[in-house]
Amino acid sequence: MSRRLELSDPHRRVRFGLAVLLAILTVIGGRLVQLQGLDGMKYAAAAEELRLTTLDLPAARGQILDREGNPLAYSVEARAIFVDPELITAPGRTALALAPLLGESADELLPMLTAQGRFVYLKRELDPSVAQAVMDLELAGIGELVEQRREYPAQWTAAQVVGFVGQDGTGLAGIEDQYDDVLTGTPGQLVYERGRFGLPIPAATQSLTEAVAGSSVQLTLDQDMQFILEQAVATANANAGVSTAQAVVLDVATGQVLAMAGSPGYNAADPGSVSGDQLANPTVSHVIEPGSVNKLITFAGALEEGLITPETEMTVPDNLAVSDIVINDAWGHAPINFTATGVLGKSSNVGTVMLAQRLGNARLEDYLRRFGLGTATGIELPAESNGILVPHEEWSGSQAGTIPFGQGISMTVLQLASMYQAVANDGVLIPPRIVDQVIGPDGTVHDQPGSEPRRVIGPDTAADLRYMLESVTNEGGTAPLARMDGYRVAGKTGTAQRPNPDCRCYAGGGYWATFAGFAPADDPRYVIAISVEQPDGSGHGGTIAAPVFTSIMSFALGDNGVAPTGTAAPEFRLTTDDA
Amino acid sequence: MSALPAYDRPTRVAGRRTQPVGRRPESTRVSLQRPVPVTAPTATRRAPFIAVILLIIGGGLVTLLVLNTAIAADSFTERSLSQQIDQLRLQEQQLQREVGTAQAPAALAEAAAELGMIPAGAPSFLILNPDGTTEVVGPGAPAVPVPPPAAGGDE
Questions:
Q1: A residues 219-248 lying closer than 8 A (beta carbon) to B
Q2: What are the DSSP calls for A403-458, one per residue?
Q3: Which of A153, A154, A558 sits opposite B123 (nearest CB)?
Q4: What secondary structure letter does DSSP report for B154?
Q5: Residue A536: pLDDT band by 50, 70, 90 thresholds?
Q6: Which CATH number fits domain A223-262+281-559: 3.40.50.2020, 3.40.190.170, 3.10.20.30, 3.40.710.10?
Q7: Which of A4, A180, A474, A561 is the most buried (most CB within 10 A)?
Q8: Residue A392 per-residue DSSP state
């Protein structure tokens, strides 16, 4: 009764109702403050997190171009197909469905589909169209990723220079390796809010960091000349007993490398198919003992120091004792009254050593170093060798007798070409370079600093040397095979003994046949150096290397429209018996 | 009191600019009396005002809806267009690849050989002298069929 009485009291009733209402409101209000105020930021962030999606935008790797702008390496968009093995319910059926599209057998795919873990690449570097066909199958647990694939359209051509990239897209050899930083771009990112169907929500938060493509590298190589050169070294390599042949073409006026290769080479699009030691660029990383092509420097020194002129007469026997060894000429003969030109033209070792003795070891070493031997040229390629040139104080007695004609000293074929470039270029050596320019993603051209030309001999000495070198390819010289119809050719042959790696001696090591020269002799445009390594052969520079020279040089001159100079070669006086 | 000059303004603008400043207090007094008639009518005069407001709100909502729909539709169009761009880009890439492969020296040599072409020897040059005479220099001989270089065959 009393309770009824209490409730029946309107004042109490109102106050009671108010208290209940206030209590409910306090609870609701408190919760509101908690959600909106205290934890508000957290919930808003979590909600945005659900909608926000980050899309990585890969940056295109720069191209590698030849001097004409033909692409030697470029990147295309590709896809990788991966599997989350935990989501695969019927591995056998999935493998059978994927096999024809991926070009693999189901047996090969099966272990990947049942592997441990949650991510396995099934196949990489696929064409997007193939990947689309795979995704259209709508198989659970199979996904695709965007990636890049490197294309080498010229395949074998210039592979040793261009190099290749690894699966992660970093350069592993050649220019791809040396210029990796330049070629690699900066990846971008797109962050956007995503709606229910994965579509970007219009007018919502978006932040786009554009990917910046890598710069392109333009080489000084001529793709066509490179192809011809590779054919020529392959032809030389086909001779009996030849293990490898190498050649380098330089532009006389600029020192730029127009073509370079060593056989057998490899396919840049498939570097995995050959052994690792075949992936190098032997023209810069492999040293040879040059043989008689090195006589050039002995003569350069003797001429420059005024010890001889091309007409200086000297009586040369066919052997000469130096320290503990006897130097022989390649052929036996009674003492001959040579001119200096004749000593070079006939390639007399004894005559050359007689000149070197007048020059002295210190001055000889000085000239060798002036011509760049013993120091890497600084070309923009990885793993360049310095060559081997011991200081003259440490020369053994026999080395002092053999270095003048190119034994006991080692150089790369590139260094050999560079030596002759200096003579062809009036005595100014321009260290060879192979990168012409770097082109930014926006098309701006960054010229490369280039190399510092340096005078190694006077212009008169260079002119005398050109005259003497031309006698080599003319009547009585050692390289009639280097002669070309219509053009005057200057050059020098070499045949060096090759050390036998088994006994660390020369016995049974075979030979290097070398040739270096330029044309036209009276207005040189191109220098070519060649080395043919023959562990079992016995070909001479004049017979086995000179033909390689003419096949490359005739293409170089004809393709670039170099007309014969129309002048006739002078008469060469090789011995005093000549008129 | 600060509101007074605001009421004052229309009168002043309506009047001549040359009106003497001294007349100002009089016009102020007139404009103060103006609001008096506005307060007189009631609900009947409010109805059109509410209708206008409703119209504006309704119109705004409809416009917003139309705009939203348009934006959403555009985003679908954008998506399909960008898909088309992607597809065309891949197509371009494919075509460039074919061109690149076909213009590689080894491929060209092979294609030329298939057409029965043979490598030309050293060319001759036709020299135009300043006096108008011409001369031919160089070895220039007809090319002889030699086995063409094996394409891609550095092996």
A1: 223-224, 226-228, 230-231, 234
A2: GGGTSS-BB-HHHHHHHHHHHHTTTEE---B-EEEEE-TTS-EEE------EE-S-
A3: A558
A4: -
A5: confident
A6: 3.40.710.10
A7: A474
A8: G
Q: Pick A112 or A296 by higher pLDDT.
A: A296
User: Quick check: B70 contacting A, CB < 8 Å?
Assistant: no
Whether cis (ω within 30° of 0) applies to the bond prior to A264 is yes
Quote the distance between the C-alpha of residue A102 and its chain's center: 32
Task: Using the structure block, give the residue that is written with the tokens 């000349």.
Answer: A225
The pLDDT tens digits for A87-121 are: 888 888 888 888 888 888 888 888 888 888 888 89
Fold (topology level) of A55-215: Penicillin-binding protein 2a (Domain 2) (3.90.1310)
Residue A154 has its nearest CB partner, among B105, B121, B153, at: B105
Scan residues 95-124 of B and list those with Cβ closer than 8 Å to A: 97, 100-101, 103-106, 109, 120-123
pLDDT digits (tens, 9 = 90+) for A301-339: 999 999 999 999 999 998 999 888 899 998 899 999 999
Retrieve residue B82's tokens.
């960008």
Look at A509 and B73; give whichever has higher pLDDT: B73
Phi-psi sector, B129: left (phi>0), alpha (psi -120 to 50), beta: beta
Interchain proximity A554–B123, CB inside 8 Å: no
CB contact B152 to A (< 8 Å): yes
Report the residue of chain B nearest A557, measured CA to CA.
B122
Coil vs helix vs strand at B55: helix
- On whether both B52 and B84 belong to a single domain, the answer is yes
